[in-house]
Each structure stands twice: as structure tokens, then as C-alpha cells.
């Protein structure tokens, strides 16, 4: 501690003690401050020559008041600057936290969309396996069924069934709160939601037989669009999912449990379409992207080869590699070789 600071500390202690004495002895009608000033100036008058030059005394008092006022202003400015710096730091920290939360939300949404895409690819491959050779047959059966229904009708074959409507271009229809399309294997339900809707506001639940959909507001209160009901036919819940598109539409993918049939409606009681007017797809492979289509076509080829007792594409590739190796080494005898892991290989 410097000498000035020590002197200031001792002076402050003395004046504090004097202020306490003045507060106890102040006459009625005066304040402790007035009493302290009277005592201080009385001290200067009695013990010093301070008041011998009144003008000098006035200037000294004025200078002291000026220094004190400037000191107060400086301390107030410093406190304001410290407060502004603290608030700026808090704003920066808050902005950083919000930016981090936004990044986490974007990354979470990106991961969710990627997971949905992966799930869709897996489902496309799963649907294709074991039934790829029946694609045309399934569509033909549906067309024959529609034709048989037409043959049973004695009325105008171009007329819609009573109480039904014409299917839309996606072989579905328009309900009060959603639009739907379908193939022989699945159903897509598209629900328009208020622009800016977030995924956390969507409540979309499937069971094998029931479907429930609604939104919630910030307080968790149920809001429109909201609907629920029983499916026209059972679905496979584990193969169903929903996604939010452009924060304006919720698209629900429903996998039919019983495939190769048309649904007249999604939920029992909703407007029905005339399934006789549904148009079978000539080739569902055209709906797949390039990579998925190549995978599916390879699976179709492998399945056809297996049914004929011939090598699959991978097996044929291994066979060709072995034959090339054998041709390049005629000096070697491969008659008694065992080719582990290479099925159906015939060296000759």
C-alpha cells in the first residue's frame, strides 16, 4: 500500500468517526452533514489561517468540490463501461450458445433425414427380395381383378361405383385433412401443416390397425390438423415412417401388410375411390434411383440364375477369375483342387 493510500485510509477512518459523533450530537433542525461541515470549517478557522484570505478559501472549496465531482463522474463512467463490457460478454456468450444449439439442431435433423433415406433404401431392397420376378404378375393380377369387377357390373362400365370418386394420378384420393397416393405395396399420406412447423411439434403414431396424427403448440396443447382412425387394412408398423418436408408438409409412408391390392381409402369412413380405375404400374423399377435400381436388377438376375441352377453375378465373376488364372498357368494340375468359397464352379 502506498503512502497516499495509507493516508487516505487513516483520514477516512478519522472522518468516519467524526461523522458518527456529529450524527449523535446534531441539534434539532440540522443534519449530520451540516454538523460535520460546521465542525470542519470551525477547525480550519480556529487552528489555521485558511479564512484569512476569504477569496482564496472560496477558490479552495470550489476546487475541492470540482475534484470530487469529476471523481464521481469518472467512477460512474467506469462502472458504466464495466457494466457494458459485462453485458456485451453475456450477449456474446448467449449468441454462442444459441448458435451451438442451432448447429446441433441442424445436425440432428440431417442425421434423421439420412437415417430415413437409409431406411427407405433398405425397405426398397427388402420389398424387392423374393418377389422381384412377380412384379409384372402382381400388376397383371390387379388389372384382372379390376376387369373382373367390371364384368360383374351390369350398369355402364364407365360409371364410377356408387359412393366413390375417381382416383388421383397417384391412385389415391383427397380426404378432408390429407392427400394420399398408393402403389400395390404401400401408401403415402401427405398432410399440409402451417409453414414453419418443427419436427418436435408433430405427433404421428402408427399401430397395425390405427393411425393418429396431430400437432402441438409451444405449450404442448393439441392443435390442427388433427385426425385419427382405423386403417382400411393392416400395415407393417416397423416399416412405416414419417418425414417433414420444407417445414410445410408431413409425409407418412405406410407399408401394406397385404400387398398387391388397392385400398379404396386410408382410414375407414373417409371418402373412397373406385379401385377399378386405379392404373397398375408397368414397372416399379423406374421409380427407384440409379444405385437402388442397379442393386434390384442385380438381385433379379441372381434370383433368375439360382432358379436355373446357374452361377449368380458374384459367383460368375469368381469363376471367370479362376478360369483366367488356370489358363495362364497350364503347367499346373487343378484336377484335385478344392475351390472353397466358390460354389457351382466347373473347371471344364
TrEMBL record:
Membrane spanning stretches: none
Sequence ranges of Acidic residues compositional bias: 148-157
Coiled coil: 71-119
Pfam families (alphabetical): CS
GO BP of this protein: protein folding
Annotated stretches, region: Disordered: 141-175
GO cellular component, one term: cytoplasm
Name of this protein: HSP20-like chaperone
Originating species: Ostreococcus tauri (Marine green alga)
Amino acid at each position: 500500500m502506498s503512502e497516499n493510500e495509507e493516508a487516505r485510509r487513516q483520514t477516512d477512518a478519522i472522518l468516519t468517526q467524526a461523522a458518527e459523533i456529529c450524527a449523535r450530537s446534531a441539534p434539532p433542525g440540522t443534519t449530520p452533514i451540516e454538523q460535520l461541515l460546521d465542525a470542519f470549517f470551525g477547525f480550519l478557522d480556529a487552528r489555521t489561517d485558511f479564512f484569512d484570505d476569504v477569496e482564496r478559501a472560496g477558490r479552495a472549496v470550489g476546487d475541492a468540490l470540482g475534484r470530487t465531482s469529476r471523481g464521481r463522474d469518472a467512477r460512474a463512467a467506469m462502472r458504466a463501461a464495466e457494466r457494458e463490457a459485462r453485458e456485451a460478454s453475456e450477449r456474446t456468450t448467449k449468441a454462442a450458445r444459441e448458435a451451438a444449439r442451432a448447429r446441433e439442431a441442424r445436425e440432428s435433423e440431417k442425421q434423421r433425414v439420412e437415417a430415413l433415406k437409409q431406411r427407405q433404401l433398405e425397405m426398397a431392397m427388402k420389398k424387392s427380395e423374393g418377389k422381384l420376378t412377380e412384379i409384372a404378375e402382381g400388376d397383371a393380377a390387379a388389372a384382372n381383378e379390376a376387369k373382373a369387377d367390371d364384368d360383374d357390373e351390369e350398369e355402364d362400365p364407365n360409371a364410377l361405383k356408387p359412393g366413390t370418386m375417381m382416383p388421383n394420378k397417384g391412385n389415391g384420393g383427397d380426404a378432408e385433412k390429407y392427400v394420399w397416393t398408393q402403389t400395390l405395396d404401400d401408401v403415402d399420406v401427405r398432410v399440409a401443416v402451417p409453414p414453419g412447423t418443427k419436427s418436435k411439434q408433430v405427433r404421428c403414431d402408427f399401430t397395425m390397425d390405427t393411425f393418429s396424427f396431430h400437432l402441438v403448440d409451444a405449450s404442448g396443447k393439441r392443435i390442427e390438423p388433427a385426425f385419427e382412425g382405423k386403417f382400411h387394412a393392416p400395415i407393417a408398423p416397423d416399416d412405416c415412417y414419417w418425414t417433414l418436408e420444407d417445414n410445410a408438409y408431413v409425409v407418412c409412408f405406410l407399408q401394406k401388410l397385404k400387398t398387391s391390392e388397392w385400398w379404396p381409402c386410408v382410414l375407414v369412413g373417409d371418402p373412397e375411390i373406385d379401385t377399378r380405375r386405379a392404373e397398375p404400374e408397368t414397372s416399379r423399377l423406374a421409380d427407384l434411383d440409379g444405385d437402388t435400381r442397379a442393386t434390384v436388377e442385380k438381385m433379379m438376375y441372381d434370383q433368375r440364375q439360382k432358379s436355373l441352377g446357374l452361377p449368380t453375378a458374384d459367383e460368375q465373376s469368381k469363376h471367370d477369375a479362376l478360369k483366367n488364372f488356370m489358363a495362364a498357368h497350364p503347367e499346373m494340375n487343378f484336377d484335385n483342387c478344392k475351390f472353397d468359397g466358390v460354389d457351382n464352379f466347373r473347371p471344364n
